[in-house]
Amino acid sequence: MNIARAVAELGVRPRAVAIGTFDGVHLGHAAVVRAAVDAVGSSGLVPTVVTFHPHPRTVLGNRVELLATLERRLELLADAGVEDVLVVEFSPAIAGLEPAQFAQQYLLGIGAQVVVAGTGFRFGKQRAGDLELLRELGLDARQVPLVEGVSSTRIRQLAHAGQIEGAAQLLGRPLEVEGTVVTGDQRGGTLGFPTANLAVDPEVLVPGFGIYAGAAGDRRAAISIGVNPHYGGTERRVEAYLLDWSGDLYGERIVLELWRRLRDERVFGSEAELVAQIARDVEQTRSATSPI
After folding, report:
1. Which CATH number is 2-144 given?
2. Distance of CA 73 to the CA centre of its chain
3. 175-287 has which fold?
4. What is the pLDDT of residues 68-116, one digit of tens each?
5. Whole-model pTM above 0.70?
6. Backbone angles phi, psi at 279, to 5 degrees
7. In the chain, domain spans
């Protein structure tokens, strides 16, 4: 998939464009993207996404827990069959563009013929632009209905509550936590369960504290999210024990899938009790299955 960060990098080609932020690419977003891909047919249009980063709401002064990093969003869009993506660097200047000016620059300027967006999509200064305006500009603008019950807000609520199976149903895939492996306390190795300690982007959602069964790539992973209360910890950690694997992961990017919440984190009567519980967590992880 070709990724551009400026109109000039993408060039003018006949396109079917899905437009939106698409944070997390949940089932509602996927429906919009699929409509653009399906619009291609035998027409020769290039399936394209115009997306925004940073999230427009953060630029306008709101805090948003992202469901995925931009890198992960782009991977998911590629998996959906998108050939080209234009990442528009959202800023107050972009927000202040007149709608027709935005459309001329970022849609007509890349050759869009079909434009697909979700219900309620607005753009431009004071959010005055809509699909009807795009039709007036000569574009075949198509609205995709909302998928009932699916929203980023609801996914965040479920994730914070540890209801990861419910979140997976709305995402269309397991809930994920992504980060870069950094040096931790290295305590897991002394217990017989060496873990990868993840540094997670502070703007990205992390599910509620607890012990989870999941996976990292093709490896099962027992995952701890919390403060390690047995050792008096106060700083949130995301740690993963990859089953049947050994090696050096420092500096590597890992995407963890969360399949099932196993239990709360807690203080144990002894380190031996902790080790025995971790062993049980690992066995439950070994038999766990993806929620979707």
Report:
1. 3.40.50.620
2. 5
3. Elongation Factor Tu (Ef-tu); domain 3 (2.40.30)
4. 999 999 999 999 999 999 999 999 999 999 999 999 999 999 999 999 9
5. yes
6. -60, -40
7. 2-144, 175-287
